[in-house]
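Example S7 (structure tokens).
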């Protein structure tokens, strides 16, 4: 007979599941937080138990890793990786083959959500340059990151959530043992069960996760690639209608393009960009051929759209030549951004040339490019006389948009998204911090039983320490670090942990376990299949971390009630809640690529369902062999 509190816990959980299915756009953080407050106010769990999820090491680890990922992006590690991975690749098949092992290995040691966030701009940019639809690349990126995430303990937030709960369970049982309460000690599971319910080591999950990753990667490179949609990016469809600027780029002495031909430098394949001429010490080279070689001091004159000019501006040693005040120092340049302004009729700049307008003195800004609608501008940007309605691309400070938004000099002031130049002078330091983090996280599983290293054994302490060092060493600004923390995800995980505790404390999890055993019997294989499919189904319709937090107590209760080892059931929950391919809402990386890739829910079903079937078969075959019942 279920208690009142068990009925409340089950009812609240069922309502959360139902709302998420009926209202797809329901805010998951608010929904789970409301559910947590409801079970707390009804006395199902104590306030301390309800709020303990917010101090869970998994939540803190995820927050720290998101900041670290932002630091890597800010320091230019992202662009460096993109150049190394896809710089000379020209076909979709070759790109996938190059990306697959790299993404799988990287996501094994880095939170896969953060990895996808870093790699998406790289892949989208490569697709734009090669005129390949991002829909052919972004879904494999998400799937490969998910597959790699189950190879180690630190690859996905799901494993961190599960392991955090196992650590909490171990601590709670040890406290009971030390309490001296004979009745409480007698109520504990036997020592063998407690040993099998211990936290996972760094590479334990990889015993099944790695075979799943290998088989899944082979599937994606062969059959899966044929199931991907091929949709042209909406942005590219609108490309020919976008504003085209005239921009003159100066090749500095340390430019990475020096000695390369125009073709090898990729200056002929940039979308929405045309190289008009090369001004070499007064000698004009036009038309420009792919065989022309880039030399120091060359002035390259282009017409192009903003997004491509941003690409040019990020090439080391290639700077706009329209204004000598342009900031080139890496440290100072990282504090500036690109901004579009439209000159008003009352602007004091009207009639002045770009060279004599003194943008540095007037606005602490530098001219990058000029656009005049319907008029073919001359190739000498510095000599262009400014007119009302001209659109200028400026290098400005962060506060420029706020300061001049309502200024009468401009009709419009708008920041250019993604235009901030990486702190390349911090690239080596950021990579060193990443290596330290990976090494530290690898050691945590070996230090967990050593009291004198308890602080170092915390994954949360490791991630937050490296995140703080990213800010202290100026690889990342404090404001960027704050923006990197995804509060919606963190609140959802913390609240779901509390809801999972409500299922356990109220006896609801034990009742569900007993019901499953009553229906299926004490057949360990069938129980394992049922637990796996239950977690898989819930993950595809809700969210992975919430499912892991709520179903883990049920899995432990099933093992305890049936007298089997809890280890295979723990691994089954962890894998099933991590390997989500069938819907966009099951895993955050699937949702992240949906918009940029132009995907529909049916696209995930067509490619993800066969992949999910393949990894399910591999998982359910290997789990009982590696962790016997």
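Recovered sequence:
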């Amino acid at each position: 007979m279920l208690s009142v509190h068990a009925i409340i816990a089950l009812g609240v959980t069922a309502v959360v599941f139902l709302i998420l299915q009926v209202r797809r756009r329901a805010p998951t953080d608010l929904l789970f937080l409301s559910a947590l407050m409801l079970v707390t106010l009804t006395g199902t769990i104590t306030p301390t138990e309800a709020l303990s999820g917010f101090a869970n090491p998994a939540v803190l680890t995820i927050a720290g890793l998101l900041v670290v990922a932002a630091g890597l992006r800010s320091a230019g590690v992202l662009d460096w990786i993109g150049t190394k991975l896809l710089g000379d690749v020209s076909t979709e098949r070759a790109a996938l083959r190059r990306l697959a092992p790299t993404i799988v290995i990287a996501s094994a040691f880095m939170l896969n959500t953060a990895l996808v966030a870093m790699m998406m701009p790289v892949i989208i940019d490569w697709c734009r340059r090669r005129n390949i639809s991002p829909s052919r690349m972004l879904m494999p990126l998400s799937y490969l990151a998910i597959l790699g995430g189950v190879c180690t303990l630190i690859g996905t937030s799901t494993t961190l959530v599960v392991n955090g709960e196992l650590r909490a369970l171990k601590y709670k049982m040890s406290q009971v043992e030390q309490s001296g309460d004979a009745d409480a000690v007698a109520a504990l599971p036997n020592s063998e069960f407690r040993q099998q319910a211990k936290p996972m080591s760094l590479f334990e999950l990889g015993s099944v996760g790695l075979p799943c990753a290998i088989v899944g990667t082979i599937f994606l490179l062969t059959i899966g690639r044929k199931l991907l949609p091929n949709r042209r990016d909406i942005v590219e469809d609108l490309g020919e209608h976008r504003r085209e600027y005239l921009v003159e780029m100066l090749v500095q002495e340390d430019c990475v393009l020096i000695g390369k031909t125009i073709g090898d430098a990729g200056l002929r394949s940039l979308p929405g960009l045309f190289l008009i001429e090369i001004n070499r010490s007064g000698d004009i080279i036009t038309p420009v051929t792919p065989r022309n070689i880039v030399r120091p001091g060359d002035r390259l004159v282009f017409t192009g759209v903003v997004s491509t000019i941003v690409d040019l501006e990020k090439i080391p040693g290639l700077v706009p030549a329209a204004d000598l005040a342009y900031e080139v120092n890496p440290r100072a340049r990282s504090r500036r951004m690109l901004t579009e302004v439209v000159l008003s009729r009352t602007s004091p700049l009207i009639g002045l040339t770009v060279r004599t307008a003194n943008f540095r003195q007037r606005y602490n800004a530098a001219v990058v490019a000029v656009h005049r609608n319907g008029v073919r501008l001359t190739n000498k940007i510095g000599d262009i006389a400014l007119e009302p309605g001209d659109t200028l691309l400026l290098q400005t400070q962060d506060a420029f948009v706020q300061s001049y938004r309502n200024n009468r000099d401009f009709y419009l002031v708008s920041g250019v998204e993604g235009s901030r130049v990486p702190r390349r002078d911090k690239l080596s330091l950021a990579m060193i911090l990443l290596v330290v983090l990976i090494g530290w996280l690898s050691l945590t599983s070996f230090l967990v039983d050593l009291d004198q290293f308890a602080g170092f054994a915390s994954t949360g302490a490791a991630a937050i320490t490296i995140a703080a060092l990213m800010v202290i060493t100026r690889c990342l600004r404090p404001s960027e670090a704050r923006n990197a923390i995804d509060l919606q995800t963190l609140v959802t995980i913390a609240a779901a942990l509390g809801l999972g505790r409500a299922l356990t404390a109220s006896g609801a999890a034990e009742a569900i376990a007993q019901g499953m055993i009553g229906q299926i019997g004490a057949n360990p294989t069938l129980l394992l299949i049922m637990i796996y499919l239950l977690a898989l189904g819930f993950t595809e319709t809700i969210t992975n971390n919430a499912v892991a937090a709520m179903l883990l107590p049920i899995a432990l209760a099933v093992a305890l009630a049936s007298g089997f080892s809890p280890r295979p059931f723990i691994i089954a929950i962890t894998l099933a809640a991590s390997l989500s391919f069938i819907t966009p809402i099951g895993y955050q990386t699937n949702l992240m690529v949906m918009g940029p890739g132009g995907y529909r829910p049916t696209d995930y079903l067509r490619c993800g369902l066969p992949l999910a079937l393949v990894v399910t078969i591999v998982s359910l075959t290997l789990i009982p062999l590696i962790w016997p019942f």
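Notes on this example. Strands lie at 245-251, 273-280, 283-285, 299-304, 318-320, 336-343, 366-371, 391-397, 410-415.
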